[in-house]
Amino acid sequence: MNTHTPKEKAVLSLGRKALINRLSRIQGQIEALKHSIEEDDGECLTHMRQVKAIRSGVKSFAEEYVQQFALSCAQSESVSPRLKRRMEEVVTSAFSI
């Protein structure tokens, strides 16, 4: 059952756009690394920096995606504000490893 208000739907839509932008950025980083490796035109240190940037981007994406999903579920299920805060803490701590 979808019980989102128009304002909540707009916020979720903006969140989706931000997630898609993150994925596009990550995809570009992966393509650049792939091309550099295929053409053998990069230094190992440069490749390692690219890998680190990709890893960081994926981690940030995953954290934001899970947080948005969890919060969306919390809003649709009328979860208490206290439980909502705890869910945010769990999501944040899960990705701070």
Written overview of the protein:
The relative contact order is 0.12. The chain has a single domain (6-94), classed as Metal-sensitive repressor, helix protomer (Methane Monooxygenase Hydroxylase, Chain G, domain 1, Up-down Bundle). It is elongated and about 55 Å long. The longest helix is centred in the N-terminal third of the chain and has 34 residues, at 6-39. It is built from three helices and no strands. The chain has 97 residues and is mainly α. It has helices spanning 6-39, 44-76, 81-94.
What value does the Rg take, in angstroms? 18 Å
Report the principal-axis shape: elongated
Which topology does CATH recognise?
A: Methane Monooxygenase Hydroxylase, Chain G, domain 1
What is the strand tally?
0
Beta-strand share of residues = under 5%
Please render the helix and strand layout as text.
Elements: H1 6-39, H2 44-76, H3 81-94
Features:
97 residues; 3 helices; mainly alpha
Short description:
This protein has helices spanning 6-39, 44-76, 81-94. The chain has 97 residues and is mainly alpha-helical.
